[in-house]
Structures are given as C-alpha cells and as structure tokens.
Amino acid sequence: MSDTAHVVLISTSNADEARTLARALVTERLAASVNILPQISSIYHWDGVLKEESEILLIVRTRADALGSLIERVEQLHSYSLPEIIALPIVDGSQRFLNWILSEVMTNEDA
C-alpha cells in the first residue's frame, strides 16, 4: 500500500456530471471521498477565445498509486475533451484521516 495520500482537483460542467464522477470514483474504490463544491467561476482561454463559465469543482482524496487509474477513469467518464485533473500530495494532516484514505482506496495490487 502506498503511504502517500493525494488531493485531486477536477472541474466539471454541471452538478449531475460531478455526482456521476464522484460516485464512480468512490464506488470503484479509486477515491476514499469526494467533496462537490457548487458553482465556481472559471476564466480561461480556449481555442483562442476568452471564456468565463460556471463549473463544479470536485475535491478527491486518493492514494498516489491509484492516480493513474483514477485519471484514466475520469477521462473515460468526463464530458470535456481536456478535463482538469490536478493531483497534489498531502504533505501533512490528521494521521488518522490520512490512514483512512489509504485504507479506503484500492489498487490492482490490493485486488
């Protein structure tokens, strides 16, 4: 089991897509938990045009060794051709909570 927990940020186009992704990641044991933050504003360039859109942000907790599978699954389910998937290592925190994340997420080695 990897001893590194990560937070993954994923933006989605709407609440239904956010719930679908969150449920899939937790059900498939690719994530220990997911927070869904309603209605964020995103400003970015896309195809040379300045865009301003409302999106939903997912905050996902997982293990380092599950990141590849998690990213692959998000890319399969996501409506965007280039979804935002950013993983950040958790440097410190409640050791009991970090241990819970590590115990909830499964990888191919755990199966």
Characterise this structure:
The protein is an alpha+beta fold. The chain has a single domain, classed as 2-Layer Sandwich (Alpha-Beta Plaits). 31% of the residues lie in helices and 38% in strands. The protein has helices spanning 15-27, 67-77, 95-104; strands at 5-12, 33-46, 49-63, 85-89. It has a four-stranded antiparallel sheet with strand order 2-3-1-4, covered by helices on one side. Strand 2 and strand 3 form a beta hairpin. The N and C termini lie close together (11 Å). The mean pLDDT is 94. This is Divalent-cation tolerance protein CutA. Belongs to the CutA family.
Largest pleated sheet: 4 strands, antiparallel
Main CATH class: Alpha Beta
* C-alpha termini separation: 11 Å
Q: Which architecture does the CATH hierarchy give at level 2? A: 2-Layer Sandwich
Spell the H/E element sequence.
EHEEHEH
- The counted number of beta strands is 4
| Residue share in β-strands | 35-45%
What would you call the structural class?
Answer: alpha+beta
List the helices and strands and how they pair.
Layout lengths: L4 E8 L2 H13 L5 E14 L2 E15 L3 H11 L7 E5 L5 H10 L7
Antiparallel strand pairs: 1-3, 1-4, 2-3
Features of this protein?
single chain; 111 residues; alpha+beta; Alpha-Beta Plaits; four-stranded antiparallel beta sheet; 3 helices; 4 strands; 38% strand; elongated
Short note summarizing the structure:
Belongs to the CutA family. With 111 residues, the protein is of the alpha+beta class. Helices cover 31% and strands 38% of the residues.
